[in-house]
Amino acid sequence: MQRLFSAFTLTVCLLAAHAQTDVDALRYSMLTPSGTSRGVGLNNAMGALGADFSALTINPAGLAVYRNSEFMLTPSIVSMRSNTDYLDNATSSFKYNFNFSNAGFVGAVVNGDGKEKDEWVTTNFAFGFNRMASFHHKTFMEGFNTRSSMIDGFLETIQEGGLMPETIENNYLFDLNLAWRTFLIDTIQDSTGFEYFSAIPNGRILQSKYITGRGAINEYFIAFAGNYGNKLYIGGSVGFPHLRYTEESNYVETDVEDTIAGFNSFNMQNNFTTQGMGINLKLGMIYRLNPYLRLGASVHSPTYFSLSDDYYTTMHSDFDNINFDYESPQGEYNYALITPWRVTASAAFIFKKYGFISADYEFVDYSYAFFDSEAGSVSDGAGNSSVNQNIQGKYQPASNIRIGAEGRIDIFRVRGGFGYYGTPFQSNVAEPGGDNSRQSLSFGFGVREDGYYIDFGYNHLINQEAHFPYTLANNDNFSAAITKQKQNSFLVTVGFNF
Q1: How far apart, in whole angstroms, are the C-alpha atoms of residue 347 and residue 46?
Q2: pTM score, two decimals?
Q3: Hey, where are the domains in the chain?
Q4: CA 101 to CA 335: how far, in whole Å?
Q5: What's the rounded Cα separation, in Å, for the pair 26 and 5?
Q6: 3-state secondary structure the chain
Q7: Burial 153-163 (b: 16+ CB within 10 A, else e)
Q8: Which architecture does CATH list for 2-497?
Q9: Each residue's pLDDT tens digit in the chain (498 positions)?
């Protein structure tokens, strides 16, 4: 059962390169916010705390807790390691990235002496950005396949559709036509019509794939909040997330045993970039029950993304006496993505001047992600229906939990946190060992003085996911690559209060 949906997904991706898939919807809906070093050190369990710029992307009511204006900037270095198991062979790869995780300004307006019990104590505003997701990764998989080739998947599509050569050349520009033009698929014509055959009929080839991903979602926003009587804090924000994702992949099959007549190797390179802007609304509140306990709640509207894809594919085949190269045209595709609603409940226990413990519970239903083609798109929208049905059939509600604590000694701060992001897949859908659940462990420390502060944060994020280089009608003839990704983030935030 778990491969049924995965096979459909990857077949759509393979044979309709211009169309978006449920994999894209999940990628852009699963958020693991970064932001300030303090927020990262607490694993962003800040929904009931506030007075930190990271908290504003969780619960904008936290803006009302500020009593001083502030400017901050957070550079970050991220290292990524991927360990992949494909066809009983283990491989590893590494990648590094430098970025700015956060930058922002808070304007705090304190009314009167800031102690009124039945009036608005503060009315604050803020603008800037926090990084909501990082797409940087590098994956390498390799294994010897005794059962099949990617070309078998192309043949199945041709045979099931009864495709003629002119149909392949006109309608499958980014996949089948490349294999056809490079003679990895050829024909024999007789009185009954065309018979297609593969240059790699029985497997027994070394399969390798290199994937490099880059990009992020940085959410720019403006926020407003008020503090009523030092008891009730309310706030809202309008976010403008900027999304960019670039992926380069190179899939290679090689006859390392020299058992396939006339054939040596082929490789297929895919390059695509997705980018665009979105808009969303966030509303939240925090209520201080007493000096020791705060409760918070927030709701995040769906983000409406207007996105565009640019892509192309090349293929090279190497035979004993001749080589062939072919390149697809440059493809363009415009569409909209609507991500799911998010609801968060939070609590924080304050131990006077010694520190605090805080926790967030976030609920998000990934099956509510939705694609829609825009005017002028190459798609007539027919593909959206099947992809959206696949989203509803594969994904489910998930619970995300974040816990953080901070200890204070004079001007010094020490922090730690843990996060768990539940699997987005329905029961029995995910490939074993690749359910896309995530675990996060973090710590940090800092110095707080009048007028400035410096914070250091570290986060260790673990994710396991499945990738299918190609799919076939018979589940026994293809395999998933299971990748365990470990991401280490090091951040430094410098802030100034005035």
Answers
A1: 9
A2: 0.92
A3: 2-497
A4: 28
A5: 14
A6: CHHHHHHHHHHHHHHCCCCCCHHHHHHHHCCCCCCCHHHHHCCCCCCCCCCCCCHHHHCHHHHHHCCCCEEEEEEEEEEEEEEEEECCEEEEEEEEEEEEEEEEEEECCECCCCCCCCCEEEEEEEEEEEEEEECCEEEEEEEEECCCCHHHHHHHHHHHHCCCHHHHHHHCCCCHHHHHHCCCEEEEEECCEEEEEECCCCCCEEEEEEEEEEEEEEEEEEEEEEEECCCEEEEEEEEEEEEEEEEEEEEEEECCCCCCCCEEEEEEEEEEEEEEEEEEEEEEEEEEEECCEEEEEEEECCCEEEEEEEEEEEEEEEECCCEEEEECCCEEEEEEEECCCEEEEEEEEECHHHEEEEEEEEEEEHHHCEEEECCCCCCCCHHHHHHHHHHHHHECEEEEEEEEEEEEECCEEEEEEEEEECCCECCCCCCCCCEEEEEEEEEEEEEEECCEEEEEEEEEEEEEEEECCCCCCCHHHCCCEEEEEEEEEEEEEEEEEC
A7: bbbbbbeeeeb
A8: Beta Barrel (2.40)
A9: 344 344 443 343 343 444 678 999 999 999 999 999 999 999 999 999 999 999 999 999 999 999 999 999 999 999 999 999 999 999 999 999 999 999 999 999 998 776 767 789 999 999 999 999 999 999 999 999 999 999 999 999 998 988 998 999 999 999 999 999 999 999 877 656 678 999 999 999 999 999 999 999 999 999 999 999 999 999 999 999 999 999 999 999 999 999 999 999 999 999 999 999 999 999 999 999 999 999 999 999 999 999 999 999 999 999 999 999 999 999 999 999 999 999 999 999 999 889 999 999 999 999 999 999 754 444 444 457 889 999 999 999 999 999 999 999 999 999 999 999 999 999 888 888 899 999 999 999 999 999 999 999 999 999 999 999 999 999 899 999 999 999 999 999 999 999
Task: Report angle CA 195, 199, 202 to the nearest 5 degrees.
Answer: 95
Give the burial class of 320: count Cβ atoms within 10 A of its Cβ; 0-12 exposed, 13-18 middle, 19 or more buried.
exposed
The label of the residue with tokens 């001749």 reads 322
Token output for 418: 């843990």
Please tell me the distance from the alpha carbon of residue 175 to that of residue 172, in angstroms, as a whole number. 6
